[in-house]
Amino acid sequence: MNRVALISGINGQDGYYLSKLLKNKNYKVHGITSCSKPGIGEPPQNQYYCDFAEGSNLNEILDQVQPDEVYHLAAQSHVRLSFDIPVYTAEVTGVGTLRLLEALRHYEKRSQKKIRFYQASSSEMFGKVVESPQSETTPFHPRSPYACAKVFSYWQTINYRESYGMYACNGILFNHESPRRGEAFVTRKITKAVSRIKLGMQDKLYLGNIDAKRDWGFAGDYVEAMWLILQQEKPDDFVIGTGETHSVREFLEAAFGAVELDWKKYVEIDPQYYRPAEVELLCADPTKARQKLNWEPKVTFEELARLMVEADMKLSQQEKIL
Ligand code: GDP
Fold first, then answer.
1. Which of 1, 78, 85, 94 could form a disulfide with 149 if both were Cys (CB 3.0 to 4.6 A apart)?
2. Which residues are catalytic?
3. What is the pLDDT of residue 139?
4. Is the CB of 81 under 6 A from ligand 1?
5. What's the CA-to-centroid distance between 275 and ligand 1, angstroms?
6. pLDDT for 184-220, tens place per residue?
7. Among 70, 44, 53, 28, which residue's Cα sits nearest to residue 61?
8. How far apart are CA 209 and CA 103, in angstroms?
9. Cα-only R_g, the chain
10. Is the peptide bond before 133 cis (omega within 30 degrees of 0)?
11. pTM of this structure
């Protein structure tokens, strides 16, 4: 019998790479997608509509799908935007996880089945970091409504594990990017602009704090870690990152460098992209994942910037022809 996976946020970057990975492993994959996403009509096959701000049909979805593994990736995941819509972010990114955990607890009772639950926790929870690099034992200091909501979900996940013996785990993933990253995130915003500038479709790129440092990896590598986390004998929490940190400036250097342009000629600072509170530095200590999951990221920082620029060059070339 094929194992059955349910992925919330199936239409996001990670949902894409994770469904590909699980299908290759012969899982039957079902997805949850948000009703509030513009441009989506009827849900495709094996997809269910649910907005985690609401969540009233979660029980029904679980009864239909009968999952073995649930990957909760759905969230309002944009940090800057979370300052504008903090209550909605708390509903979706925070209470939404609790809605799902509670539905899973009842489903386990009804079905007499043990489910494995993955919570997409975030390095943003470390926020104003108290030590560097950050590991599973580093205290949190969230710096945005998004990060506060993720801390809530992190603890709810652990609480369901400890209170009800559920197999519930947190993957604390550092920033992970790909050609499927949303265009409002800094890496993708940069690689898209690089391609458009190279093709003469755009003159300038406006950014906020380019001195911020992140531990950036490739999303395709990180979904492998999500799966591995749910294959362990005992449920546990893991930090997933590369262990290297780079500034936005360095990403600019790498991305513009990939098409032999000098970023300093094109980038302007626009304070509208500053955040009320900034996370200056994130850097993972992925020792536990390396030792217990045998997980290693494969794509390097330079390769990541290059592959994203190459993908955006193709898209912008098509757009230019049309
Ligand atoms: P985050 O780490 O989840 O907030 O991922 P982002 O890709 O949104 O932002 C990464 C870093 O880039 C943050 O420190 C931002 O302040 C910084 N940054 C600088 N300019 C921009 C910009 O124009 N857009 C975004 N999204 N981030 C920017």
1. 94
2. 122, 124, 146
3. 98
4. no
5. 9
6. 999 999 999 999 999 999 999 999 999 999 999 999 9
7. 70
8. 40
9. 20
10. yes
11. 0.96
